[in-house]
Write the structure tokens for this entry.
Amino acid sequence: MTGYLLEFSQALLALLLAPMLAGFVRWVKARLQNRRGAPIWQPYFELAKLFGKDVVMSNNASWLFRVAPYIVFASALAVTFLIPLIAAPLPFDNIGDLLVVVYLLLLGTFFLALAGLDTGTAFGGMGSSREMTVAAIAEPTIALSIFSLALGAGSTNLSHIVVATLTNPGVALSPGHLLAFAAIFIVSLAETGRLPVDNPSTHLELTMIHEAMILEYSGRYLALIEWASWLKLTIFFALLANLFVPWGLATALTPAALAIAVVTLILKLAILGVVVAVVETRIAKLRLFRVPELLGMSFVLALLAVTSSFLLK
Amino acid sequence: MDTLFSQLSTLGSSVILLFGITLLWRKSLRAYTDAFRWQSAALTVMFLIIGYFGNDPELYVVAVFLFILKVLILPRYLERMEQRFGDQRESQPYVNIVTSLMLSGLLVLLAYVVTRPLVLVSDLPTRGGLPLAMGLIFVGLFVVITRKKALTQIVGFLVMENGIALLAVLGTFGIPIIVELGVFLDVLMGFLVMQVFVYHIHSTFESIDVDQMNKLKH
């Protein structure tokens, strides 16, 4: 029973933390650029505003356009049940391993791309085609790099990987882990629409990817999609933090351990948020046709990670 | 102690290999020079690590020479040549960037296959790095083959030389210092000869694009 309670509280935590994380990254970026910046709880107000508004929809929009936001949101929410956020062996471990996580994330991307095509606007189609180009290279890279961790742990189960790293801390410094970390970091920037690939804070026609697909959405649909994309950011950061640096995760279900786990999770997310904000301030967006080169680089990193953890066993 | 040593050596070799692969991703000569400089710095650290764990003080001396030659002198010369010839971008290599990245991944796999028998019989703590060093040699050779500018080819050659140095130090824990010094001298000489060639190519063709040399056939 406590296990299920833990699962639901973990999903709720991710759901509530996600807007705060997005707001935090924006705030750090603003400070780095000598602006005062909106308070970090601004995204909550945005969500409240959007949920209160009416939905305006194109006459040509089909049922697909209406269900896509729910699917995008639900698939992201489902992932939060499956990844170790605050405690390591989870009761839902047997429901899905890393492959389920990767494909749930891809399911959301797929429906978002379909929704972008659905209304037949030029920008929507452009955004969808770009998103698919990025996703086609990014998804195998995630799977490959998590495989390199799985090879070390002997299981594709995320909790098993975490527990294996906790029992044998030396593994965290092995080249397989470090290469996989670099690969997943690059891919998370691409998948969550962060800077060298996509700019989350602009609607410039020529460069936008994510924003182009959701241009037609308004009201509660837009709120769901925005929330889902923040949730995705949280999921990727949590994967980076907990798969590679799992210390702090609760292995026993005592209140003290869980409290420590929540605090360290927030701390790790904040550190990654600062890193991403610094990266976004320092580098410019890549030209679109250079994006596959960047992702190709991360694919090679993941390939090397798998090779070294397979052959050095 | 031994596991720490083997982990550090594998980790160091991976970092050195990564700087080699970075070459394939970047375009400007400045980025090539920077990658080479960082790679040589990592190689110096690697020599120090192996000198410390392998109890071989001679390697410290070699590391100092390596630092002076490959971190200070050669990149400095490359930068001077870049200033002289203007910004030489590798804009149209024979193999495009995504393909070269994928191929470099395959080359490293090949290196693992080639060195597998060696790694299986070896009981050195550094054996995990041997395939990576071999992979770096392949990647350096690949840069020499597929890049068009004479200067980027030189950097490819230097990276290949770094790979050989890495392989030597991982496999033998330091060859006699006199041989090491001879190798350094050879690298310096080779570099200077290539530099003279580059100046000649530039004065003949007004470009250091080696594609232009095909004109000599007609």
Observations:
- The CA atoms of residues 72 and 108 of chain A lie 4 Å apart.
- The first helix of chain A runs from residue 2 to 32.
